[in-house]
Design brief:
With 694 residues, the chain is α/β, with parallel strands linked by helices. The protein contains 26 helices and 26 strands. 41% of the residues lie in helices and 22% in strands. The strands form 6 sheets. It has a 5-stranded mixed barrel. Strands 19-18-20-21-22 form a 5-stranded parallel beta sheet, with helices on both faces. Helix 24 links the parallel strand 25 and strand 26. Helix 2 crosses helix 20, helix 6 packs across helix 7 and helix 14 packs antiparallel against helix 19. The relative contact order is 0.08. It binds 5-phosphoarabinonic acid. 5-phosphoarabinonic acid binds next to helix 15.
């Protein structure tokens, strides 16, 4: 009979707003010992009882990436609810996972956002609770109350059943929801009452039985899910059923109604950190009662909590009984004693995020549909490349020069990833001086009218007779006709960046015929088709939407790897720029280990919204993979968040294109979260128009 722990990580980011927010609620605040986040502290605290293999975290999809990154958690240990539905469904899901892993498994369920001072006693209390759970009881940890608090539920103990690990075990007589002050006072004077800690221990199978008895909709959903565990149908089934399950707490839904509930009273310096006053109470304070995080300059300041943001000093003069919390999003100045009401402000400041269906209306020019059509474009591009007339004299080149800008220019970078000869992308008016007859010159311009591309292409034609071009028309087409150069026409009406399937796959097909590309794209095309379904608007809460939510409001730093995902990282950056209309940057490993990482030192101060995204495939050099693991630790230490995304499928092409396609979807969803239409790129057009007038 093994012991498992399940940490429940959620929250609305209301009580400790603005330091905690909907996107980064309380478990992620550095309120644990040695500046650890509360979730990290919780994880480390239970680890000695279970080991990594038996420690799960259950969270909602909006927080999943953050949880994974914060704890370096393996996917199999992360249980993701489509949306938070209070503690009963979260516990039900976790109990299912535990019981499938070990039908006899004992499960400790605990919130991710408590502060505990005496960890040794905490673990002893849990060991006592585990022993009681082994006998079949539903066990709850009760906290010895130190004051008549009205913010907690109370548990009244009944008969003493025994003791273990220095802790008594009592039958529970009654649960009482948060009482009024008089009642709380009476509980304290009578004795035999404990605060409900929200920490429970039971056999997973036992809590599932109770859920069966009291929460029929949840029980039904769990039964259906049990057969789908670990299969591709899991996510859709979970999404389909989760709206229907009872959104209730485990206390109210089960514990208050069940038979045979016991309490293990304990005293281990437990703090729920329910508001800023509670934080002030546990923080170290100076002789005037001033608790500080960050830089504070104070004169005649007393009984205050100061929470400054990195790189900014909070200065106070002649104030007292106050909480001052400064963050990137908001500055809170509140009477300490009225901290409970901060949640009302938080609700006004962070209205519920708009539903995707509402946001889709911003896409007036249909970018979502175009992105959904990408796999089809790729397939058509391959077919088109098969049909193009290729004159005899084209082959025999030993390198390719691909001239093109922006959404067209990326074609050169991506071609380079798959050709057996060098590909030089050329983004400018001139071609490199070393270009000659051994070079195949390719002009790529979706519109066919980009002046840099036309200029470089023309210059290239004076150096080599091996040339071809691809566009939807424009001056490039005319130039090719007048110089009798093969021109490949692709359908018009797209944004250049949204025609990548045509541009790239047509050229891949042509270059394959010319003997310069040897690749099998079957798996890649099948993977893209699957992704089109999984990442599209018809799959709410999908991976791309989740990533977009995690990036929203920040500055993405997209990291790829040299010789592999570098061009894809660049594509993510440019798609985020053009679709989501916001800054984004990219870099490559291992190079970034030699410069960019030093820039992280002050990132928390100068780029607090920086969000690193590692693009990963199984095809990176093992030392590069090892570097990523180290970088993740460094980022966490610096308080910077990161996400990791893995390519799909097995082949290099499938992994690369699936990452690229994921980035396209992310950029469009991010546009919608930014409140902008992804399609128009006015600044690019305006610049081109101004130049044309010169
Ligand atoms: O995405 C865009 O609209 C731009 O980056 C264009 O691709 C860039 O300006 C070059 O235009 P074209 O692709 O038509 O040559």
């Amino acid at each position: 009979m093994s012991v498992y722990a399940v940490i429940m990580a959620g929250g609305k980011g209301e009580r400790l707003w603005p330091a905690s927010t909907r996107a980064r609620p309380k478990p992620f605040l550095p309120l644990g010992r040695e500046g650890k986040s509360l979730i990290q502290a919780t994880y480390d605290r239970v680890l000695p009882l279970t080991g990594r293999e038996r420690l799960y975290v259950v969270t909602e999809s909006a927080l999943a990436l953050q949880v994974k990154a914060a704890l370096g958690l393996a996917d199999a240990r992360l249980l993701v609810e489509p949306q938070g539905r209070n503690t009963a469904p979260a516990i039900g899901l976790a109990a299912l996972a535990v019981s499938l892993a070990d039908p006899e498994g004992i499960m400790i369920a605990l919130p991710a956002d408590h502060l505990i001072e005496d960890e040794v006693t905490f673990r002893k209390a849990l060991q006592a609770a585990v022993e009681a759970a082994q006998e079949g009881h539903l066990v709850t940890l009760g906290i010895e109350p130190s004051c008549p608090a009205t913010g907690y539920g109370y548990i009244q103990r009944g008969e003493l059943l025994g003791s273990s690990h220095g802790h008594d075990i009592f039958k529970v007589k009654r649960f009482t929801e948060k009482p009024d002050e008089d009642t709380a006072q009476r509980f304290l004077s009578e004795g035999g009452y404990y605060w409900n800690s929200g920490i429970f221990v039971w056999r997973a199978a036992r809590i599932l039985e109770e859920i069966n008895r009291f929460l029929p909709k949840l029980a039904q959903a769990l039964k259906k899910l049990a057969g789908l565990w670990g299969t591709p149908g899991w996510e859709a089934a979970l999404r389909g059923s989760w709206q229907e399950v009872e959104a209730t707490s485990i206390d109210y839904g089960v514990m208050e109604r069940a038979e045979d509930v016991v309490v293990v009273p304990a005293s281990f310096g437990w703090h729920d950190l329910g508001d800023w006053q509670a934080v002030w109470e546990v923080f170290p304070r100076d002789e005037n009662g001033v608790a500080v995080r960050g830089e504070h300059l104070g004169m005649d300041t007393a009984r205050a909590l100061i929470w400054a943001r990195p790189g900014k000093t909070v200065a106070t003069l002649g104030v007292s009984n106050v909480a001052i919390v400064d963050t990137q999003d908001a500055l809170l100045v509140a009477a300490l004693a009225r901290s409970q009401q901060v949640r009302e402000l938080a609700r006004q400041a962070q209205p519920a995020p708009p539903e995707w269906d509402e946001l889709f209306k911003l896409d007036t020019s249909g970018m979502l549909e175009v992105v959904a059509g990408f796999p089809d474009q790729c397939r058509k591009g391959l077919e088109l490349g098969e049909e193009v007339d290729l004159p005899q004299g084209l082959s025999g080149f030993s390198r390719v020069l691909c001239v093109g800008m922006g959404g067209s220019g990326i074609t050169g970078d991506l071609l380079g990833r798959f050709l057996s000869i060098p590909v030089i992308p050329c983004r400018g008016y001139r071609v490199p001086s070393y270009i000659g007859e051994e070079t195949l010159l390719i002009g790529v311009s979706y519109s066919g009218n980009t002046e840099e591309t036309l200029s470089a292409f023309q210059e290239g034609l004076s150096r080599t007779r091996r040339a071809l071009a691809i566009s939807s028309g424009g001056k490039l087409r005319e130039l090719c006709a007048s110089r009798k150069i093969p021109w490949i026409g692709i359908p018009g009406g797209y944004q250049p960046r949204a025609a990548l399937g045509y541009l790239l796959f047509t050229l891949l097909s042509v270059l394959r015929r010319l003997g310069a590309a040897h690749l099998d794209l079957k798996e890649a095309l099948a993977t893209l088709a699957e992704q089109a379904k999984a990442l599209g608007p018809a799959s709410p809460g999908n991976q791309a939407q989740t990533i977009a939510r995690a990036l929203a409001g920040g500055v993405p730093l997209i990291y790829g790897t040299y010789g592999n995902t570098g061009p894809v990282a660049f594509r993510w950056k440019t798609q985020i720029n053009e679709n989501a209309k916001q800054p984004a940057f990219w870099a490559e490993l291992p190079e970034l280990c030699h410069n960019e990482i030093v820039g992280w030192e002050l990132a928390e101060r100068v780029l607090p919204g920086g969000r690193v995204v590692f693009l990963r495939t199984g095809h990176d050099h093992p030392r590069v993979q090892a570097r990523i693991e180290i970088l993740k630790e460094v980022l966490l230490r610096r308080g910077l968040s990161y996400l990791e995304v893995e390519g799909e499928g097995k082949s290099e092409a499938a992994q690369l294109f699936s990452l690229l396609y994921l980035g396209d979807w992310v950029s469009v969803y991010l546009a919608l979260l930014n409140g902008v239409d992804p399609t128009p790129v006015r600044p690019i057009q305006e610049l081109k128009e101004r130049l044309a007038r010169l």
